[in-house]
Write a structure and sequence with these properties.
282 residues, alpha/beta, Rossmann fold, 2 domains, 6-stranded mixed sheet, two-stranded antiparallel sheet, 9 helices, elongated, DUF58 domain-containing protein, DUF58, vWFA_dom_sf
Amino acid sequence: MSLLTPALIAQLSRYSLATKSRARGQHKGAHRSSRVGTSLDFSDYRSYHPGDDVRQVDWNVFARTEKYFIKRFLDEQEMRIHIMLDTTKSMQLYGKAAFAKTLAVALGTIALQHDDRVSFSYDSKTAPFRQKGKTARSALAHFVEHATVTQDFMVDARQQLPKDSTIIFILTDGLAPLTHYEGLVKQAVRHAKDVRLLRVLSEEEEILSLSGDVQLIDSETNEQVNVSLTSTTREAYEQRFTAHAQQLRKISAQHGVLQLELVVEQGIPHAIAQLVRHAWLQ
């Protein structure tokens, strides 16, 4: 798993994904669900009824009370984690793609080490990755590492949403039109009660360091424009950048999507610390 260093892998082994969502898969995992099942984690007792499994009778309690009680256990079920990665052209700038890929593998690794089911998608033309268990970690890393550049993540992503997910993670720089983002989250929240946006940004994008006469190229559309970058135009750019970010947060809040902004230059360890601080990891 070349995207993850041995030190980072060791760090990730200490964490699990935290969620209030009760959506679970039908197979065993390492997360307690609210329903009663057959794991080794004791819950409580209930009275014996004809037809119950007599192997679940607690004979020690019977010896004390002369009444039959059945042991109840917490069922442990897998979580279903879906990770969506934006690999459009704008993500290829300032190290955002490598940062986001590493973060995607980190989240997937945490889920897989707890025997959860992980799916990963980035393009409607490429079948999603779907596996579970610790042995799938290398396969996930390879799949993510070789994710290619796509044209329209926000639109393509809607076609790859699995039903009944526990958590959906969206990793993007959020630079697509706001209407495209809102369309995606509207659909995502119908597939999962817990949807989270990880917005990946670079310090280079927030503040323009260029000056003078330059040609700017839109990384998504390849549209070119010649501008004279003065203090006034830089200020106007920064105001629009800030306004776009505020609208993105507003859309997330309106649809119950949790959002964090992560800065590439601050590094992956800082990003993991942010996830812990905001109780996305525990």
